[in-house]
Each structure stands twice: as structure tokens, then as C-alpha cells.
Amino acid sequence: MLPDFTGHIFGHGRRAKVVGLPEAAENARVSTESEIPGAHRNEPHHGDLSGRLNWLRAGVLGANDGIISTAGLVVGVAGATTDRTAVLAAGVAGLVAGALSMAGGEYVSVSTQRDTERAALRKEERELAEMPDAEERELAGIYEDKGLSPELAAQVARELTEKNALLAHADAELQIDPENLTSPWQAAWASFLSFAVGALIPLIAIALPPVGARVWTCIVAVVVGLVLTGAVSARLGDAPAGRAIARNVLVGTLAMVITYYVGVLFGVTVG
User: Fold this and answer.
1) Per the record, where are the segments of Basic and acidic residues compositional bias (predicted)?
2) For the segment 114-133, what is each residue's pLDDT rounded down to a tens digit?
3) pTM, whole model, 2 decimals?
4) DSSP state of 131
């Protein structure tokens, strides 16, 4: 009888060393993991850490959207009028509308994802109840494909199924953690706050300086903000920072230039 190692495969520990596996099987498992996209040795592979990184990445992107869209709006209005109240009103309205739009879109998206995951879990639960033997063979096949011997894969599948069948099958077949589904409300609040924080940068930058300096001050503040979000997003994605920053700054600057001259044209035409 093989040693009991089932408690070390579930959930967050599924990429950690599996205690009790023979050395050859452990080597095969590690070798298989190295071929899986996104799996890297010498890097943390903790489920909670991965989740936090995803939230942080989404927050950075939300802040980036807030910076660019609000900067384009206030610079465009500043090109049309020197009235500080009009510029601030447009900026605040853009901040609120953009943050609500981001939050609403994220809520709908995550709700749809969670509904899909729940439906998949219900289907898996039905299949486990109706054909447990076939499901266990399917699970064994998954571990066999990852490099375990047929005998060891069957043992793994049997012991995992005995411990928590739904968790074992959801993790291996669906890559879903039934105990840690994403909350739509948390996602919505995160999107709302990140967009609002990003939008405050151009809004404050264009509100405080005198009329003659407000547009240039806003541009400088926005470029600094975009450099920071570009650097952070590149770091989180393990991508070249220079390219990400240049792309980010180019898009933001282009948006401000276009909206500014649209505002100037509109102001001249209306005036």
C-alpha cells in the first residue's frame, strides 16, 4: 500500500512536492509541470498568491483606464474653454461614469464566469453520483498523462476521490476551486476604486494650476502615472518594462493630444 499523500495534492498545494510519492514518480510529476504553460520552477505557485496577483493586475489596468480616459476628457474640455468649473464638472462626471461602468462590467463578467463554474461543478457532481467508476478512471488518466505510472495514477485517483471527490475532480479536470469562487461584488468594488484612483491624477493635476499651466501640468502628471502603471503591469506580467511603458505613454499622450485639439476646434467653432 502506498503512503497516504492525498492531503498534499488538493488546492493550493497541488504544485508543491507531494509527500509520500516515490522519487521516480515525483521526478516525473515535476518534469511534467515544467511543460505546462505558466508553471516555472523556483517561483511561488500558491493559489492565494496567484489570486492576489490577478487582483493586483486588474487594479493596475483599472487605474490605467482611469488615467487615460479622464485625462482625455479634461484636456479636451480645457481645449474648448478656460472655465475651471466646466473642466472640473466634466472630469468628476467622467470619473463617476467611468468607475460605475467599470464596476458594472466587472460585476456582469465575473457573475457570468461564476455561474459557468457553478454549472460545471453541478454537472461534475452529477457525473460523480451517476458513474463514479468512470470518473475515477478519467481522473487516473489525467495523472497518467502527467507522467505517473498507470498503477500509481490509479492509486492517486482512488485516494483523492475517497478524500473529497468533487474537489479532486474539479481541481484536475476543470481547474476550479469549489471553495474559492470569485465574488462579483469584490471584483466590482476593486474595479470602481482602481478606476477612481487613476482618474484622480489628471483631475487634480488640471484643477490646481493656473489656466496657462493646467494642460501641461496635467500632461506631465499623466505621463508619470502611466510610467508607473506601465512598469507595474510589466513587472506583474514578467514582460520588458521599457516596451510596456513606451506603449502606455504613447497611447495616453495620443489620447490627450487628439481630445485637446477636438476641444480647441469645438471651442473655436462654437465661440
Assistant:
1) 38-48
2) 898 888 888 888 888 888 88
3) 0.69
4) -
